[in-house]
Specification:
Elements: H1 5-32, H2 38-53, E1 56-61, H3 68-76, E2 97-100, E3 108-113, H4 123-127, E4 134-137, H5 143-150, E5 156-159, H6 161-167, E6 187-190, E7 192-198, H7 202-205, E8 208-212, H8 216-221, H9 223-232, E9 235-241, H10 248-258, E10 267-273, H11 285-302, E11 310-312, H12 315-324, H13 327-333, H14 335-388, H15 395-436, H16 439-445, H17 447-454, H18 462-502, H19 515-529, H20 537-541, H21 543-602, H22 606-641
Parallel strand pairs: 1-8, 1-9, 2-7, 9-10, 10-11
Antiparallel strand pairs: 2-8, 3-4, 3-7, 5-6
Bound molecules: guanosine-5'-triphosphate (GTP) and magnesium ion.
Magnesium ion is lined by residues 68-69, 87, 92-93, 212.
């Protein structure tokens, strides 16, 4: 069964919504039974939020005119019955264009003027300055208007050569890549630097983000695209065209922007587009088939891939077939096979990632709840034993019992001081961790790289500065890990002592692992390395280029460190609220015991009544524990069962 990308994405979206709703139900149930402490509550909330807002970015990267925009139209927008993204011969998409959905904004196209390149701010910073963007409202119910507005991404300006150079489009050392010059000697450059399209298209609404890029010349001019945006995409689709074969500039893009992502976690697809160019009416279908296979094999060889890693298709015929509802043409376009692989690979991986997160989050909340239930159960049976011992005893004994409980409680109240001491050590260590991951620390560790990049002129020793800077950052992560270890060891010892002294059931939560962040740093370093070869020395010598690189780097590292910080905060919260819960439960148990004794002192039949109550409470706890196990089990089953990704056996990632 071949399933299109849209259907797979819809299914994935439905699964995410279902899991989100189940998580909410679980949290509500736990809260209702006073089994959800603040830490677990926040953990579940973050998980629900993650499920709701999870983004999947598919980036299309290729030389101009290979059919990126046409393929985007065919896969995502055929439902509009026409081309939405402009696709035409020659350079069409002049600026990187992101299609996404933001419910806070009306449907619109926002364009960042190209002149902003002359200023030092990174793209990420411009995103936070909406007033700097030109906004065009979109009418999503009117495909004509929609397509008309999208034409803006093709707009160009004609500027003096110096201006083109300053904007990063004119390179004296690589004249063959320079843009066209008109009769007046003016250079054609894009009018916009970046375009953001916001529309409530069904796939975009469910978190799909599509990134369309312009060809080589333009991608290179925006370092942030290569160091931040493309490396963060879940899938990168690289496109070649059957009518041009693999050209030198195709290879340039492949080597610089796609081949290097080999060991990153995103999926990579290589498409040989425009196979309809080979549909020669004088050839038999078998001959055409053989010719396509041969071209795939040649392409694969040039890119050092396996033959079956190159997916041949015709975006244009695929779009046409979908618009006309022509099943035979659609099959010939081979578009469905690509869509199926794209969906399986990208959503399959996303699904597994989210499933793991749900599994871990639910297990944590469940473990917390079970610990609390266990405590309640133990306290109930202690109390029953205590009361049973009072059967037939006189008032004197009962009074003594009350005194003993009050003494115990006073002693327990003194535990507050020990708990406070643990907390203050914990906080001190945490503060150190937070400082390590803060902005000042990042700046400090990257100071020499920063200076080296900002130094005027050729930067020959820059690779060394990068290696040094990233070693420093990895060192910070290692320090954080060491601190986490110390915190964990400290808590384990302190909890053991508190458990012995006051009969708590505290257990230190495992700290979050930091490996992922080291891997993220490695990926950022790799994405920068491509700018450090000899071929880029001239570009790198330009102050505004290296300034952009520095800013893009800082922004990315900051976001990695912030994520790490967020996980540590959550871990900290889990620990603190565990302590809070146990202290609260214990306090409650003492007041219940004292209250029970008081009642027995007051009324003759009080003891038997109280014992019966306790038995009932015990039975209720039993039921709650049973229900908790069932809920956890249901949750795990639902996360796996409802949309297990389709068979992955056939998938051939490039
Ligand atoms: N014959 C044929 N033409 C195609 C196919 N796909 C795209 N084209 C045409 O090739 C031209 C370029 O397509 P675009 O989608 O604009 O290419 P692009 O990669 O987005 O190019 P830029 O936006 O300039 O970077 C357009 O005229 C398309 O109609 C195809 O499968 N077959
Ligand atoms: Mg295009």
């Amino acid at each position: 069964m071949v399933t299109g990308f849209s259907e797979q994405f819809d299914r994935h979206g439905a699964w995410r919504r279902e899991m989100g709703a189940r998580l909410k139900d679980l949290a509500a149930w736990l809260k209702q039974h006073h089994l959800l402490d603040d830490g677990a509550d926040e953990g579940l909330q973050r998980l629900t939020e993650q499920l709701r807002t999870d983004k999947v970015m598919v980036a299309f990267v290729a030389e101009f005119s290979r059919g990126k925009s046409e393929l985007i139209n065919a896969v995502f927008f055929a439902g509009y019955g026409r081309r939405i993204m402009p696709a035409s011969a020659g350079r069409t998409t002049m600026c990187p264009t992101e299609l996404a959905h933001d419910a806070e904004l009306p449907p619109c196209l926002r364009l960042l003027p190209i002149e902003t390149r002359l200023q030092p701010q990174a793209l990420m910073e411009w995103r936070l300055a909406p007033e700097k963007w030109t906004r065009v409202d979109l009418d999503v119910n009117d495909p004509e208007q929609l397509a008309g507005a999208m034409e803006k991404v093709s707009e160009v300006l004609h500027v003096e050569q110096d201006q083109a150079r300053a904007l990063g489009f004119w390179h004296d050392d690589r004249p063959e890549d320079n843009p066209p010059v008109n009769a007046q000697g003016l250079v054609e450059v894009p009018r916009w630097r970046h375009a953001l399209i916001n529309m409530a298209h069904p796939l975009l609404r469910q978190g799909l983000v599509v990134l369309d890029t312009p060809g080589l010349n333009a991608i290179g001019a925006e370092p942030e695209l290569t160091v931040n945006l493309i490396p963060q995409a879940q899938a990168v689709v690289f496109i070649l065209a059957a009518d041009t074969g693999v050209t030198k500039s195709d290879l340039g893009i492949w080597r610089e922007h796609v081949a290097t992502m080999q060991d990153s976690s995103s999926s990579r697809f290589v498409v040989l587009n425009k196979i309809d160019a080979l549909w020669d009416e004088l050839s038999t279908p078998a001959q055409i088939e053989a010719q396509i296979a041969r071209q795939c094999a040649d392409t694969a060889q040039t890119l050092a891939l396996q033959d079956d890693q190159v997916l041949a298709l015709s975006a244009q015929k695929g779009l046409l077939a979908k618009v006309r509802g022509d099943a035979a043409l659609l099959a010939d376009s081979r578009l469905p096979r690509f869509e199926q692989l794209l969906g399986q690979q990208v959503l399959g991986a996303r699904h597994v990632m989210l499933q793991d997160a749900i599994g871990a989050g639910v297990a944590r909340a469940q473990a917390e709840a079970e610990r609390t239930l266990g405590m309640r159960r133990r306290e109930l049976s202690d109390q029953m034993l205590e009361l049973q011992g009072l059967r037939g005893k006189n008032q004197q004994v009962i009074r003594q019992m009350r005194l003993r409980i009050e003494q115990e409680k006073a002693e327990f109240d003194r535990s507050a001081a020990s708990v406070l001491a643990v907390r203050s050590v914990h906080m001190k260590l945490l503060r150190e961790t937070f400082q390590l991951l803060g902005n000042a620390s990042i700046k400090r560790e990257l100071v020499s790289l920063n200076t080296a990049l900002r130094e005027p002129g050729l930067k020959l020793g820059i690779r060394k500065s990068y290696a040094q800077g990233f070693d420093n950052l990895r060192g910070v992560i290692r320090q954080v890990q060491t601190l986490e270890g110390e915190i964990h060891a400290m808590l384990t010892a302190a909890f053991r002592q508190l458990n012995t002294d006051y009969g708590f059931a505290l257990q230190a939560t495992e700290p979050p692992t930091m490996e992922r962040f080291t891997a993220d740093l490695d990926a950022v370093e790799r994405s920068h390395l491509r700018y450090l070869g000899l071929g880029h020395m001239v570009q790198l010598a330009r102050a505004e280029f290296s300034e952009k690189l520095v800013r893009a780097l800082l922004a990315r590292v900051r976001s990695i460190f912030e994520t790490a910080l967020g996980e540590i905060e959550l871990w900290n919260k889990a620990t603190t609220s565990q302590l809070d819960t146990q202290l609260r439960e214990r306090r409650r148990a003492y007041s219940r015991r004292i209250e029970a004794i008081e009642r027995i002192q007051d009324a003759a039949g009080g003891l038997d009544q109280r014992l019966r109550d306790l038995e009932q409470e015990q039975a209720a706890l039993q039921t709650t524990a049973q229900r908790l196990r069932e809920l956890g089990h249901d949750m795990r089953r639902a996360s796996v069962a409802s949309t297990t990704p389709p068979e992955l056996t056939e998938v051939v990632p490039a």
